[in-house]
Write a structure and sequence with these properties.
With about 450 residues, the protein is mainly α. The protein has 22 helices and five strands.
C-alpha cells in the first residue's frame, strides 16, 4: 500500500508560516533549467559537506542580497545576490557557507520555539516551492513563499557570530575538498564589507541575518593566505562556468528589461549563452518569430536538451500556438520524463489545445506531475480542469481544495473539500484527501478564534 503523504501537516504548517510572515512575503522562482543549473553547481559542495545532493537550491525573487537556510533540505538565495555573483566559485562559496549551517546543526540550536518554527518553515517552504504562477503573471513561475524582513523571520534566520565563524571555516573546507578556490569566499565577504555601519533600513538582509565582523573577515583571510594546496588559485571547471552562465542568462533574461538583455548579449555573438539571452528577450518583447528563431539555433547546438525544448514550448504556448506547443513539450517530456515542471507545462498545453484525446492525455501527465511535486497551485488548477473535462467532479473539487489550502484561502478550500466529500466514495483516496483539507481548515479556524 503506498504511503499517504501528510497533507494535513504540510498545509497546517504553511498556514502557521503565512500567518507569521505574510506581511513580508516574497515570491519563489520556479524554472526547471535554473534549478538544474543550481543543482549542478551545488553538487560538489553538498558532497563535501556530507549532505544529500537532493538538497534543493531555491531562488527567491528579490533584488536584495541574501541567502539562508530554513531546514536541512533547502538552501535559499535571493535573485539579487545570484545576479551579483561574477564567477561560479563565488556562488559556490555562498552555497558552502549555507550548507555548513545545515551540516553543523545550527538550525537545531535555536530558542525554545525553534523546533516548531523549523517545522513550519520546512513544510511551508515545501509547499511554496512549486507555487509557480500562483498569480499567473510570472513567466518563470513566481509563487508564494516566506520573507526575511519581518521581526519573526529575522529572529528565526539570524545566526550567532559563533555560528557564522563556524560556517565560514566549514564552508572553506568544503570548497577545498571540492577543488574550488576558497578565495571566492573572501570575495563574497567583500561585497558586504561596510554594510554593518549602515542603518538597518539600508542594509541588505544578509547582513542582518549573518553578522559580518572584522574577526570573520580576518579568519577567512588567514585561511585563504595559508592555503597552498591544489584548490588555491584554481579556476572553476568548464562545466561549472557553463551552468553558471546559463543559469544567470535564463534568470536575467526574465528579470531584466529586454533592452538591457539584448544590449548585453549583442547581435553578433552566436554563442549558446548569448543566443539563450536573446531568445528570452525577444519573447519578453512579444516577438515570437525572433524568439523561436533563436531557440531554433539553441536546438541546433543541443538537439537533445529538454530545457531548450521546454523553452520552445513555453514561447509557443504563450504566443497561443497551442498545437506546436504540445509537440515541443512532448519532446521535452521524452527527454526529461521525471521533471514535474516540464510535465506540468505539457499538460497545460494539452488542455489549451482542447481535444478529446489531448484532454485525456493531459490528465495522465498532470497526475504524473502531481505525484512528483504536489504543491504547485497552477498545476493543481490545470489538473482540476482535466478532471472536470473527464466528468470527475469529485476529484476536481479535491485538487481545487488543495490548491486553495496551499494558497492560504482556507474558506474556499473548505467549500471545495465539503463538495468533494459528498461526491466521492467514503474511504477512497480522494475522499481521504478532502478530509485532510477539512481538518486543516478547522485547525486554521481554531487558530483564528484564539
Amino acid at each position: 500500500m503506498p504511503r499517504r503523504r501528510p497533507f494535513t501537516t504540510l498545509i497546517a504548517a504553511l498556514a502557521l508560516l503565512l500567518s507569521a510572515w505574510a506581511a513580508e512575503a516574497r515570491s519563489i522562482i520556479r524554472d526547471a533549467e535554473i534549478e538544474r543549473g543550481l543543482q549542478e553547481l551545488a553538487a560538489p559542495i553538498l558532497r563535501a559537506a556530507g549532505l544529500p545532493t537532493s538538497t534543493r537550491i531555491i531562488v527567491v525573487n528579490d533584488r536584495t542580497l541574501n541567502a539562508f537556510v530554513a531546514d536541512a533540505r533547502h538552501i535559499f538565495i535571493h535573485s539579487g545576490l545570484l545576479m551579483r555573483m561574477e564567477d561560479p566559485a563565488e556562488l559556490q562559496a555562498v552555497l558552502a557557507h549555507e550548507a555548513a549551517h545545515i551540516a553543523n546543526g545550527h538550525l537545531t540550536r535555536r530558542p525554545a520555539n525553534a523546533r516548531s518554527a523549523q517545522s513550519a518553515a520546512r513544510m511551508g517552504l515545501l509547499l511554496a516551492l512549486a507555487a509557480g504562477a500562483a498569480s499567473d503573471n510570472g513567466r518563470l513561475g513566481a509563487g508564494i513563499a516566506i520573507g526575511t524582513g519581518s521581526t519573526a523571520a529575522r529572529l528565526f534566520f539570524a545566526h550567532t557570530r559563533a555560528e557564522e565563524a563556524s560556517a565560514d571555516q566549514a564552508g572553506l573546507r568544503y570548497m577545498v575538498q571540492a577543488g574550488i578556490d576558497p578565495a571566492a569566499m573572501l570575495e563574497v565577504l567583500e561585497i558586504f564589507r561596510g554594510q554593518e555601519a549602515l542603518s538597518a533600513g539600508r542594509q541588505d538582509p544578509y547582513v542582518r541575518t549573518h553578522p559580518l565582523t572584522r574577526d570573520r573577515v580576518r579568519s577567512v583571510e588567514a585561511f585563504v593566505n595559508g592555503r597552498s594546496g591544489s584548490a588555491a588559485g584554481a579556476e572553476s571547471s568548464a562545466e561549472a562556468q557553463y551552468w553558471f552562465a546559463r543559469t544567470r542568462a535564463k534568470l536575467g533574461g526574465f528579470l531584466n528589461a529586454p533592452r538591457q538583455t539584448l544590449r548585453q548579449a549583442g547581435r553578433t555573438d552566436q554563442g549558446e549563452i548569448a543566443t539563450l539571452a536573446r531568445a528570452i528577450a525577444h519573447h519578453q518583447n512579444a516577438d515570437a518569430a525572433r524568439a523561436i528563431s533563436e531557440v531554433g539555433r539553441l536546438l541546433q547546438m543541443r538537439p537533445n536538451d529538454p530545457y531548450y525544448q521546454e523553452l520552445q514550448g513555453q514561447i509557443l504556448f504563450e504566443s497561443r500556438n497551442f498545437a506546436q506547443a504540445v509537440q515541443a513539450y512532448a519532446r521535452a517530456v521524452q527527454l526529461a520524463p521525471r521533471e514535474p515542471l516540464i510535465l506540468a507545462g505539457y499538460g497545460r498545453a494539452l488542455l489549451a489545445a482542447d481535444t478529446s484525446s489531448g484532454n485525456a492525455r493531459a490528465r495522465e501527465v498532470l497526475e504524473q506531475a502531481y505525484a512528483r511535486d504536489p504543491f504547485d497551485p497552477r498545476m493543481l488548477r490545470d489538473l482540476a480542469l482535466a478532471y472536470a473535462r473527464a466528468g470527475n467532479n469529485g476529484m476536481a473539487s479535491v485538487v481545487t481544495a488543495e490548491r486553495y489550502a496551499i494558497l492560504g484561502r482556507m474558506e474556499d478550500a473548505e467549500i471545495h473539500a465539503n463538495r468533494a466529500s459528498g461526491l466521492l466514495p467514503n474511504g477512497s483516496g480522494g475522499w481521504l484527501r478532502a478530509q485532510d483539507v477539512l481538518r486543516v481548515a478547522e485547525a486554521a479556524q481554531s487558530r483564528r478564534n484564539r
